[in-house]
Amino acid sequence: MDHDDVEIVGWGHTPFGRxxxxxxxxxxxxxxxxxxxxxxLQPREIDEIVVGTYNGGLQPLAFPSSLVLQADDDLLFTPAxxxxxxxxxxxxxxxxxxxxxxxxxxxxxxVVGAEKMTHAPAEAxxxxxxxxxxxxxxxxxxxxxxxxxxxxxxxYFVKYGDHGDALARIAAKNHRNGMANPYAHLRSNLxxxxxxxxxxxxxxxxxPLRRTDCCPISDGAAAVVLAAPGSAPRGPAVRIRxxxxxxxxxxxxxxxxxxxxxxxxxxxxALERAGVRLSDLHLxxxxxxxxxxxxxxxxxxxxxxxxGGGEVVAGGVVDRDGTLPVNPSGGLKAKGHPVGAxxxxxxxxxxxxxxxxxxxxxxxxxxxxxxxNMGGLTVANYASVLERVR
Length: 390
Hints:
alpha/beta; Peroxisomal Thiolase, Chain A, domain 1; nine-stranded mixed beta sheet; two-stranded antiparallel sheet; 17% strand
């Protein structure tokens, strides 16, 4: 199914980071208001609302859908639904909005992804995130998903050799890119030498993964307004050429942890539905919750074969001025990862590139972009292709 009859006409994005003065409600309200404003719409013109939050016990309020109505009284009585699909919650919300428009039930849909996390202690966060893993749900381990991806890294190193250097290059690239992103949680150009060196300020977190190989826990929200063509004021807009979802088995014993098989399926489905090839894309935002994830995602998007990601990053292919910039926003690694917000945020970052409003992040001449977002360890996988309309 392609979605090229749905446009993104508005967007909003809060800063990501440790935001003690913000609540889940305030983050949602800010992003929602900004998205409606940039769309040039009145709140009463929104037909439906979709909210993406993971929560996992991090917030006592487990029923946040109507928080969006706090953005404006004219949203009163607008249908609002909360969706969740682990770290792909934001993309799940986006897909729900797209389906509402394609079904004819709505012409303008507000999609908001948000998460408030940094108030919780490390063990509580680890417990909440491990709720997205079949085998370790219920455990309280501060390392959380880092331990799972450390096992992926260890298996990768056994099969293809030590790639600690490649992981450090990915971290350094994304921190360098994050310097140009005003929304990013971490805006420090740490450099390759720091990222590849284990020390007091860059300790081992789990297995071969250093602190610089792990994305930060963040607060934040992002929002978009989806519209059927002709249903919103004529302003900058991006078309969703394709949006694909593919799920894998939940038990790790039923998945090859290095194959990222469902991720491959989702990515190929998106390219085929959009009628594009990798060479048609000008940038990609991928799910780099850990640097090992981005390394394997180079294989997913078609930049290399199995085990070849190290050469890709060492050769500068994925740099902002490379053949295919990957995560020019800084990715989850530098921008941050407020779980429910991430999928929406990735799309907002791509949109800003395509309408040439990315500022210092701008990839010159970008008109087509890809986005890959995953929930769990490649269990729920979403891939999309976006194209500038005007």
